[in-house]
Input
Amino acid sequence: MTTQVDPITTRLTPAAARTPDREPPKPGVRRPDARRRRRLGPGRPIPFGAAVGPLLLLAVWSLGSLTGLLDERTLSAPWTVLTTTGDLIASGRLQESLLISTQRAGLGLAFGVLIGTVLALVAGLSRWGEAIIDGPVQIKRAIPALALLPLLILWLGIDERMKVVTIVLGVFVPVYIHTHNGLRSIDSRYVELAESLRLSPAQFVRRVVLPGALPGFLLGLRFAVVSAWLALVVVEQINSTSGIGYMMELARQYGQTDIIIVGLVLYGILGLLSDGAVRLVQRRALSWRRTLAD
Amino acid sequence: MATHPGGLTVDTVAEVDTRPVVRVRELTRRFGGRTVLDGLDLEIRENEFVALLGRSGSGKSTLLRALAGLDPDVAGEGEIDVPANSSVIFQDARLLPWQRVLANVVLGSTGAAAFRRGAERLAEVGLAGRERAWPNQLSGGEQQRVALARALVSEPRLLLADEPFGALDALTRIRMHGLLRELCQRHRPAVLLVTHDVDEAIALADRVLVLDEGRITVDTAITLPTPREHRHPRFLAYRERLLAALGVDQPPTAAGVGPASASLGVGPASASLGVGPASASPDGRIATEEVSR
Output
């Protein structure tokens, strides 16, 4: 045999493997570290990929205001909104409105998620539960929260109770639908396994049912978070004396587009932040899954 | 016992406890109009390794699921007496993907000692150090080893295995055979292994049953020295006979098989009954061919 060192073995040394092989492959030379990306599937994650779309939107908006394409009375410029935000913070109005709005959304979300989950568990684990619960929930799903508002105002008045109940009604439906679906799609083989291991009903729920339904629950939660903010907008712009929606409604009466925009941006940021939080939880809690997007 | 057709009553060595672990009487199971198990009787004794062969659709899995109590919705009757402490191994490893390996192993057990025992069983199946792995990070063979560890963690008196190696590649399967034998010798459960692989049955079992049309048509003890050599002439004789019982017509002088059986003078399947281990069975239980149709 020859004494010459094999070119392939040299390239496999740790030092060579550490430096990513960026230059185009020389013909006839194997690229030991070339980890080609998966051909199907969406490809590698983009750093800060989630920010690309919103930033693009902001750029278009700025451009429109700069060139005068967007009238100040139709849509205030981003910098006007920024200074208005500063004023609102200085006067304390923004914090006050934000606090009360977050409280309402949080309270409605908490109760809604709880109710949705419990209903989904009852309906998912027993045929009677499903027979009793599923129909009414599906009917409720077909009725928009807005349409229920007149009745809720008649029943509960226009105070905080009505607001929270409206949010709860918007929130529990997606949580119920997706958790119930997740529960029902748990592989029956796992149920059989639980039986063969003689798990108690409590162990079965804790080890099989809840983790099995978790992906569905978290998806429902993402929808729920969005519906909570949506319902908040509705209730705060009707007969309200506090909150972001009230602040915007007041601004409408005085024609202050900048404050309306501040409210809108605030709603948007709150929605994005809460959705991001749920997605973070999702990634942590479902780390056992290998999916297309990972 | 009255069912001994040969009336063999050989008092023998080691086996003291002859009470069966599993006792099935007149077991019938029906799916729709079809009778899958038809008045089946079966006994499995302490520490006995029984392999159940049968064509696909012969009711092998139905019998196993009946013993495991996993068929509450299936029509039928009969007496089943199995120990409360029995485990099942399925064809798929059936690990909960959202639980780590060790948590899967101790899924059925409670108490502080469970995790220690689970880790011990994992070490026994050669997976020490993988306790914190997720099931989908393991290969198919490794997953099935975790399932084996899970089945043995409660020290069951009966192990029911439904084609546990059916989904594995040939190489992995051979390794799993060795592992299963070793573990069964250490933990000494009675085993009912459902398989369609004749070689697997002969290589592993103390006794092989053939299920056909809802009844056990062959019940034969395997008396081969361990480790069982697939080229051993008696291995081949068993093989030929069981394949015949399963309705597989073999070419009479297939390469390799022909000379071996010819040298023993066991050409046709019926003749091989003569060299069968029936008479050689040391403990005098049903070890003769019993065709009940």
User: Anything to note?
Assistant: Residues 78-283 of chain A form a domain with the MetI-like fold fold (CATH 1.10.3720.10).
